[in-house]
Specification:
The chain has 304 residues and is α/β, with parallel strands linked by helices. The protein contains 8 helices and 10 strands. Helices cover 26% and strands 18% of the residues. It starts with a strand and ends in a 6-residue tail after the last helix.
Amino acid sequence: MYRIRFHARGGQGIKTAGRILGSALFLSGFEVQDAPRYGAERRGAPLFAYVRADRKRINERGIILRPDLVIVSDDSLVTMAGVGVAAGIDRETVVLLVSAQPEALWRTQLPEAGRIVLLRPLVEEEHQFIGVACAAVAARLLGMVGADALGEAVARELAFLGPAIVAANLGIARQAYQDFGDRAGMVREGREPPATQWPRPRWIDLSFEAAPLSAPVIQGGMTSVIVQTGLWRSKRPVIDRSRCRRCWWICSTFCPDGAIQVDEEMRPIIDYQHCKGCMVCMTQCPAHAISARPEREAQGGGEQ
C-alpha cells in the first residue's frame, strides 16, 4: 500500500491536491482513500491530508503514522512544534518539500528521512497553483500514474471552477510532472509491520473525583492566550495610520479571535501573537486602511 501524508497551511490548496492525487490513482486502477484533517480555523492554520492507495481493499482508517511519502507545501511547518512533519518517517520515506533553501539545510532538520526532494516555490502570481504542482510531482514520484490520468483527475476535480482555471492548473501540473521525470518510481510501497511491532499507545491516566458520579479532570488545560496562533499566519494585516478613522469597533468586533485591541488614543492595535491572518479585518475596514503583507517580508518590521 502507498501511504501519503500532506502538510500545508489553510489556503494553499492541499485539500484539493489530495483529491487530485487520489482521483489520479483511482483512474490508474487503485483502490483509494483520501481525506483532509483540519479544524474550524481559517487561512494559514496548519492542516493535514491523507491518501492511501492499494490494489486490494483498504481496511486501514484514520491518520497515517508511517508514511511512504510526506508532502510539505510550506517549509516553515517543518520546525513548528505540534505539526509533526517528521512523525513516523524513516529511511524508506521520501519527503517532498516546497522550499528555496538547499537540501543540506533540510538534512539537518529531517535527519530520519531517506530522501528529500525539493520543489522550488512558484512565483507569487502563480502561488495559488502550489497544491496542483505538489499533486503532480507526487504522482510522478509514485511512478504509477500516467500523464493522461493526472490530467483527467485535475479536470474532474476542478471542473466547477470553469475552463480557464482548469486550463491554467493543467499547465502547471503537466510542467511539474515533466520536470520530475527522472524521479519516477522513487516512492516505494510500504509494508505494515506485524501487530507485535506496533508501538505501545501513550495512555494518559486521568484522576477521578471521589464522588458517586465522577468525571475526568483536565489537569493542565491550555488556553487560547497561551497558544500563540500567530505562528500560523502566512500574511499579516497592516494598518495604515494615515487612513485609519479609528472606527475600532468595526475591525475589533469582526475579528474572530479578539486579536485587535484599542490603545489609550482609541487606535486599533493588532496582537500579532494571536492574529492568524484570516484578513477579515481587511475586508471589513470601511476606510481600506488595512492591507495584507506577506509574513516573511513583514517580520521584524514592527507594523501596527
